[in-house]
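Suppose a colleague, Dr. K., hands you the sequence of a protein chain of 475 amino acids and asks what its three-dimensional shape might be. Before reaching for any lab equipment, you can write down a predicted structure in token form. Begin with the sequence itself:
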Amino acid sequence: MAKDPKGFLNITRKISEYRPVCDRIRDNKEVIDPRSDASSMEQAKRCMDCGTPFCHSGCPIGNIIPEWNELLAAGHWEAAFLLLDATNILPEVTGRICPALCEASCVIAINDDAVTIRENELGIIEHAFNSVLIKPHPPQVRTGKHVAVVGSGPAGISVAAFLNRKGYSVTVFERDANLGGILRYGIPDFKLEKTLLERRIELLKEEGIQFKVNTNITDIDSLKKEQDFDAVCLAIGSRTPRDLVVPGRELDGIHFAMDFLIQHNKKVTAESFNEPDITALNKNVVVIGGGDTGADCIGVSHRQGASCVTQIEIMPKPPEDRTPEMAWPKFPMILRVSSSHQEGGERDWCVMTKKFLATENKKVRAIQCERVEFGPEKDSNGRAIMKVVENSEFEIPTDLVVLAMGFVHPEHEGLIKNTGLELDQRGNIKAAEKNPTTSIEGVFVAGDARRGASLIVWAIYEAQNAAAAIDEYLS
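The predicted structure, expressed as tokens, is then:
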């Protein structure tokens, strides 16, 4: 297969462009304009086919990156898809919303722009769907063993798919009305349209996986009433949010990020909900938390018609470039600007929330804040010590506060508590990484429920481990 050894020298990095801000904030459609097949093939030529491809060390799921880049560059789409499909069950998802850990460790990134690995992946899978390269392939032989998967998020979908390929009969249980977990309810359509998720789930159904919605599994015995499963995998995510315990927290107008996002996603798909309406329309919105979830809340606020949006973070502003502490090939914790940030609003760092201020009818009207700073001193865990800046108090007027400070552990009430599963020190289900067997015989765990809240690509990695452990257990 001919390959241009100077491709990375002659071709510059080019990523997909975003739709104009004035257009995209008026709808909930995908923000990017996907690039052409020809552009994906050209960008794949920048891959150097390294002797030691460090992109592998950055990718948790072991994507065979240089090989499918070479096949893509030569226009061998089906072969590239087969290599990608061998390791990644959800490339149409990771190709859109993964932070591209692989690109941070791309060898070209030492002194140039990395290969567009994530978008090359997206180009391969979308071409495969559009040209009907993807067809259902149910296993020709079944093992006769049945596995229950609780939760239909990225970990649950992936472990079900991996086990189904091995010939196990798999049933996935989901307590919500629709499948997808955080992919459906926690990620806005402008980042991941739900038709893409439904396309994948329909394929998995055609391959033989059974899905049951509106089914809240509260203990293992209730599963046995459904069927005598030979093994169970818990992929229930990490949905308990980190709260902010300060005076005024009980005021009306203060909500957790996931409540805000779930309700918005239901509105987009016309799914009913019973909770009081949370809307940013004509409001001054403050998002507390500087991560991806906070950025998603900013994008939703823009689309709901917020008057203004401010995002505050207690940690310092990240550097814009790598530092010696974040040298290649480490994934650098640098300043990242999402499509939502580009749409407007303000960002502020080293801001600590001191209290919420109320109107006469007990609605939030402002946040009382103060500045903090982090000096060179470290605590016993090696973390920088935070100090309050004297006389630095200020207020941020607000009508709607969204708490996007992450998640602490899976929900303990219900399944975990009723089943008596052993937990680790962080409150996650206790299990080893490579052999994620829980404290109960025949019950395994995958994804955020074991690892803690993390990236979707790590959920797929967890599913790989769980599927391998279940296969070994049942064999």
